[in-house]
């Protein structure tokens, strides 16, 4: 039910009209996952600018941000494709993306504290807090400190033991449908 308009009045984005009483919440990894990361960023940035969406930073967004501020990052796991796509974009757009990604929150506590949204989840004792440890958990979840045969970080299912009062919505690992625990 979203209406999307483009045109000269929206040089880096879109005019998006949501269905009545609807607000989107993006759980990160806006990049490295498909054929047009710049378009995804344009849509999400437009929605946030229009105050019809919220977004938390995912680990892929964080890696792109670090690349855009000049950090040495490995171009793998989709980032190489995103960088190729960015090679066709203007410097002004890339700067806008850099600023956008740099300002994304690592998590939100909303609905009077009844809901937490983070990219990879968040343990109850970390809700509403900000530290390097909280940021790392928001981006990567609980990990073993080891990598698997594909070079991917081994993750623990922190949600299986979660007993908090606050519901936590997270993404991180692509799923065909929502999983409730």
What does this structure look like?
With 181 residues, the chain is α/β, with parallel strands linked by helices. It has five helices and nine strands, in the order E-E-E-H-E-H-H-H-E-E-H-E-E-E. The chain has helices at 37-49, 59-68, 79-86, 91-103, 132-140, and strands at residues 3-5, 15-17, 24-26, 53-55, 107-110, 115-118, 143-147, 153-155, 167-169. The strands form four sheets. Strands 5-6-9 form a three-stranded mixed β-sheet. Helix 1 links the parallel strand 3 and strand 4 (53-55). Helix 2 (59-68) packs across helix 4 (91-103). It is globular. The protein starts with a strand and ends in a 12-residue tail after the last strand. 26% of the residues are buried.
What's a concise summary of this model?
The chain is of the alpha/beta class and 181 residues long.
Search tags:
single chain, 181 residues, alpha/beta, 3-stranded mixed sheet, two-stranded antiparallel ribbon
Q: Layout of SSEs?
A:
Elements: E1 3-5, E2 15-17, E3 24-26, H1 37-49, E4 53-55, H2 59-68, H3 79-86, H4 91-103, E5 107-110, E6 115-118, H5 132-140, E7 143-147, E8 153-155, E9 167-169
Parallel strand pairs: 3-4, 6-9
Antiparallel strand pairs: 1-2, 5-6, 7-8
Helix pairs in contact: 2-4
Largest sheet: 3 strands, mixed
- Please give the order of strands in the largest beta sheet: 5-6-9
Structural class by SSE content? alpha/beta
The rounded Rg comes to 17 Å
